[in-house]
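Anyone able to model this chain together with 4'-deoxy-4'-aminopyridoxal-5'-phosphate?
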Amino acid sequence: SIYLDYNASAPIDSRVLATMIDIYKNHIGNADSRTHDHGDQARVIVENARKDVAGLLGISSSEVFFTSGATESNNIAIQGLEEYALKSGKNHIITTSIEHKAILETAKSMVRRGFEIDIIDPEPTGRVSVEKIVEKVRDNTLLVSVMHVNNETGIIQPIEELGLELGKRDILFHIDATQSCGKLVQELRNAKYNMLSFSAHKLRGPQGVGVLVLRRTGYKLPPVKAIMYGGQQEHGIRPGTIPVALVGGCGKACEIAADEYKNNSIKTKAVKTALLAILKESGLTYSFNGDQKHCLDSTVNLCLQGVSSEALMLSTKEYCSISNGSACTSKSYEPSYVLKAMKISVEQIEDSIRISWGPDTNLDEFKKQFSKLLEMAKVLVN
Ligand code: PMP
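re: yes, here you go
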């Protein structure tokens, strides 16, 4: 069956896996051991990985901090500001209603700790308005957190304009770049921000490792503190033994992305072009959720009118792994909060699926399976 759920997790690149196996086999040790060569070698791997991440993002390696993934990075970026907020009296956070739960739930949890938050809805296009965010800025605004690309819709947010606007004011800007890192490479290199998060597994690295970027202003890091107690790893920002093979795999994935992102985009675009052509020919009534002018090449959120996404996913799961991009458990079905925030009707949300792919998606196989999926949709339409 064809895997078309890359936004949930992308398959590991075989070169990344080979790098990791080599590390597991031949580079044992703790990167913080200072008394033997094994420790030294592990440290070299970690520091090289840090350079590869920095190279991809166009920043200094001293601004790269390894974590267990975007969820942890997002938590540190927000919770880690508590002490500074108490000292400075700045305790207002602005974010959006289409963020991943790792941002939304963390931000909401800060209300209990005396923070004030504003959560901005997107436009029906799926994009958040820079003006609406800037309008909410107050004297005590500490942080604005906006994702670069939404995981459910693939819609690209105006982070470059936002960075410029917020840069003029004394406000921290955090970007959740989990879905764009390694894809919108130039955009991220151009963007102005103070903090950035991503997970390696979305750019074909291993699961369980990610990065929090803390940009320096002069020599100064943003005023975040660790949210766990422990050792002094990662400058105390993220205590705990550094998982050398995971970090090495993350570095390798970033190195590959930096070399190949332009070519990758040509390949993912070809899949999208095929998807649109097959869809047009199908005779089905459809629409896209989100303004496709601002959509990633490797994602669509598609509403097939009259075709329940639940029924479609069930009847096609033998040959297609797709999702409806929402929390769906066996007990309860909740329509996507992202699509709801875009003012899409519940009926339309129920008929919406998310398809996401990558540079290694086989075009012919895609055409074959996507055509089959649409044939099934025709059977199910009511
Ligand atoms: N942010 C975004 C935008 C995401 O898409 C995801 C993963 N779905 C995360 C954060 C969390 O990543 P992880 O589960 O790897 O911590």
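The radius of gyration is 21 Å.
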